Amino acid sequence: MDRTFCIAPMMGRTDTHFRNLCRFASKHAVLFTEMVHSNALLKNKRIDKYIQKTDIENPVVFQLGGCEPMDLAEATKIINENKYDEINLNVGCPSPRVKSGGFGAFLMYEPTKVKDCLSAMTSSSDIPITAKIRLGVDNQDIEETLDNFIEIILQSGIKTLYVHARKGMLEGLNPKENRNIPPLNYERVYRLKEDFPELRLVIIGAPRSGGHTERLIKRLQINKNIVFKSNLTKNEIAIEYAKSSVAIVSSLYEGFGFPVGEAMSCAIPLIATNVASIPEITQSFAELIPAENADAIELAVRNIFKKPEKNQLRADAGRMHIIENFNWQKIAKLYEDLIYKTIDEFKC
Ligand SMILES: Cc1cc2nc3c(=O)[nH]c(=O)nc-3n(C[C@H](O)[C@H](O)[C@H](O)COP(=O)(O)O)c2cc1C
Description:
The chain is α/β, with parallel strands linked by helices. It has helices at residues 16-25, 38-42, 48-51, 69-80, 96-100, 111-122, 142-154, 186-193, 212-220, 234-243, 258-265, 278-282, 294-306, 308-325, 328-347; strands at residues 6-7, 30-37, 60-65, 86-91, 129-134, 160-164, 201-204, 226-229, 247-249, 270-273, 287-289. It contains 15 helices and eleven strands. Flavin mononucleotide binds next to β2.
């Protein structure tokens, strides 16, 4: 769906009649419904009133309000049966009634709850789930809270957010004032979008021709950001590590743990899966994540890019840990001790 031009959701305005009118003006604009609370679909006998739509209106996004994951999932199923193109969770409405119901912009205080709501909706839907958020609410410091909020809610698997580029003031301003005060802050939104567009991923290995990886890279249009390098010598691998900002060892199983040891000895921040021999080798000098979890990799990469100095210090300490503990002298000494201990046990 091309979202270049959308008509925003507006309570008391964007009903089926208004949307029909809009469709005369533009064939392509994405239209929204008014916000409808999940209870209105689940408990009201006259749900036609809320779900009503004609086919010429599409593409149409249904905007849901609510904060109970199970209810939102049930409402999502109903919307799926009614030929909408997307379902959007309202995390931006600042009205006192919405606030007292604990949904809308109030949810900016509760990223984990929003993630749970979006996850429940995603697993009940064949059409995309999105959210419309504010930059923050009340006294939140948006430099701190917004990235964290987004990182958590993206764990639900949603790919698109709409941002009303100002804070919501739940104390002291009415909904109308909340549409103009405080001033719009597009710079903050732009900084979000700017997140790492130049990132390049070097994969040591080669993809299978026509296989899943190749197809995925093509579908995501990220071929410019990914480079495969295979048949490298040890020296060339060390050079690749040394040039990198972060190393990711996403193994499902690792017997000896050479890749983590190699990365750590080059003093680069390391993300590695918490499996087999890896935690024993990395100790606390790497970011350990569960295996087969792309979201965990993304979150760990973001965290490392956000705090480069702190992570570089840990990587430097990691290199010392490898030098001190994984060298021939130390291993030979441990081995020698073991042999003498075994001989002594035999003597007794
Ligand atoms: C009358 C009116 C009703 C609105 N109702 C909703 C709503 O139901 N859901 C929502 O997410 N935003 C709602 N909004 C906010 C708009 O979608 C939009 O985010 C906001 O007006 C900021 O855009 P603007 O700067 O172009 O006004 C409403 C706005 C107006 C003016």
